[in-house]
Amino acid sequence: MKAGKIVVLGATCGFLAAAIQVSVLIGARQAELAPAARCDACLATSQVEIEFARLEQRIAAALVPGTAVGPADVRLRFDALATRAAALDLPAIRTVLDQDTAAAATRERLAGALRALGPDIARIDQPGIGEAALAALAPLDFDLSRLSAAADRAGLARAAAAEAELARLHRILTAVLACLFALGAVLLALLGWHNRQLGLARDGQQRSSEKLRAASARLAAATAEVSTVNAQLQARNAVLDRRDRELGLQNQRFDAALNNMAVALCMVDGNDRLVVYNRRFAELFGLALAPIPGLLFADLLGMATGPQLEQVHARQRALSAEAGDTNFIQEIAPPAAAPHEGGPRTVSVSHRPMRDGGWLATYEDVTERRQAESRIAFLARHDPLTGLCNRAFFAEQLDAVLAEARRRGTPLAVIALDVDGFKDVNEGHGPAAGDALLREVGRRIVRAAGDGVVARLGGDEFAVIAPGAAAPGALATRLAEAVGGPFAAGGAALAPTVSVGYASWPADASSAEALTRHAESALAAAKGAGGGAIRAFAPDRDAARRARRALEADLRQALANREFTLAFQPLVDTRRVAITGFEALLRWHHPGRGAVSPADFVPLAEEIGLIGEIGNWVLGEACAQAARWPGDFTVAVNLSPAQFGLMDVVSSADEALARSGLGAARLELEITETVLLDDGEHMLEILHALRARGIRIAMDDFGTGHSSLSYLRRFPFDKIKIDQSFVRDMATRPDCITIVRSMAALGASLGMTTTAEGVETPEQFAQLQAAGCDQAQGYLFGRPQPPAQMSFALGADWASRGVAAA
């Protein structure tokens, strides 16, 4: 039966393949009968006949005098006929035409006539040429008509043959499909019989499976019962194992905790026998590390390497007899096993009696802690470097001395001293030399101050409280002279000097705080006068100093209080007279002072080290504002020399651009020449790193520095900004306009943009246009405006000001 199925299946596949093959042949024959296949030759010959007639008509029209037909028209029809005639050479058309000998000959004669006529087309209107052409073409009129007829007959013959072949293939396909149908019926009958046999076998298998499942269920029940008993036994064993492990772990934890305690511990029972002690107890009193439970404590005392344990236990026993619980401090010698620990140790003992008559005691070595507490107490009132009073202790001492002076009615002076050039010593010779200098200056002041109180107030500033000083100026001079004199530190020969300021009670102040403040005010005046100066307190100087300090305090809070804003002044292209960018300018709006001039607060910010934080905010805010502008306007931000030392300019620029999404090419950083004066090579590396990111670098106030041209050679600036002093004087000083022209020409030759600052009149703008400046900036185009009031185009009245594009 299996062999029969294989035979039937093979025959079916064979007939199916034959049917597919016949279907493919039928498709091919039907393609041959497509109208396009039959009509290509007929269409081509018809188009040749039509174009031939049009050519003859154009030649005849060209021969008639007074007509508009000329050689060009004839050439057009000739080219069209040549194109149609060329189609007769295509393989599909040529195959049809070559079946008729006369048609093939006509095609050849037409090609020859066209080749002969081609050279005469250009002079077809000359006498005799047109007539000759018509005579040469006339014999082909009838032949071309026969050519079209021959093409049609050939196409019809091919179609008839293809249709006959197609009918034969259809008969073959019908026979093959009938055979396939018969074989399919046989195959279905075989499959039905086979499926019936499979059903009978499956029913028998299911009955066997049910019997097997029943037997498996009985076996599983017996196995489950055995497993339950085993599980109960295993659970009992697991509980016992877990308890054993937990007990061992608890013992390990207890031992680890006991021997890793920072304090020593000892436990004794009611029979005065040892229960346990830890490693720290053994180390503290020189005992063997392994305790011996049950040992009499009296025997343990004898095992110690020194008398320390016996001394402590004697006091412990005496105090506990009186009060039970007791805590006390005991000083003991270091154990014999650790003589390197030096002097006596301080032990804090905590003794607790137990209900069974025994006791538990802890022993903590607090030597280092008590020493640290003493050290902390000292440092809280003294300077760690010089050992002198610090500012807090100085204030306490001054309060006490002033109270005594009031009681006695004696004068009092506070003298403040500052070491001149200390920063140079610290940076030039190293911190060790600076520390040595401060210690030596402190010693010299102490020797010269007599019974006065000497303090180091911080940094390189010292102060002296001089009770009973009737002539504080003389004392100040004596202190300054005492500090002077050669001094060697770190291999360097130093000659320190000090600036001195002083104030007296009751003449200059009524309180200790005011007396100190006035002495420091006088010191500030002395420092401003130069090294080695001595100044007494003057009220007018103190007022200015207080005003500056108040401004400094407000400035430190301005950024956190959101008091800073930015204003933007337009940069104008001198050729197009259009705004191309803006310069960001910092503004401080103080709630009480109003608008504070940048000239007042920017130098102060640089001096107190706030310019880095403020500059970082300006850079981020300027980029954030520019990212919201329409178009591609640039934004320029000024960087002061101090910012390069107080902030990472490259990282700040990267962060500002990343947060705002502003393109680097739209950011312009303006620096002055002084940036490159100190550590010029390092500054050049920073500028190159910024420029590599696509950020533009401009030199501000060009021409006012020390060596502008040398910096242009060392770094390829993108822009130079001509200082407004040159622009302002162009109308009155011819040399200024000459300098401006030279700067503009220099910028152009180096590929740098030139921007003129401080443009206020149309005449100045016209002069800058003539001088070749690329950009202009000033009140003529607009004052700095907050973001909400910015205009990105010049006003409508701009043309009325008499300014025109270059």
UniProtKB/TrEMBL annotation:
Domain EAL: 548-798
TM helices/strands, residue ranges: 6-28, 172-193
Pfam families xrefs: EAL, GGDEF, PAS_7
InterPro entries in UniProt: Biofilm_reg_signaling (IPR052155), EAL_dom (IPR001633), EAL_sf (IPR035919), GGDEF_dom (IPR000160), Nucleotide_cyclase (IPR029787), PAS (IPR000014), PAS-like_dom_sf (IPR035965), Rev_trsase/Diguanyl_cyclase (IPR043128)
Keywords, sorted A to Z: Membrane, Transmembrane, Transmembrane helix
Domain GGDEF: 410-539
SUPFAM superfamilies, alphabetized: EAL domain-like (SSF141868), Nucleotide cyclase (SSF55073), PYP-like sensor domain (PAS domain) (SSF55785)
Protein name per Swiss-Prot or TrEMBL: EAL domain-containing protein
Provenance organism: Lichenibacterium ramalinae
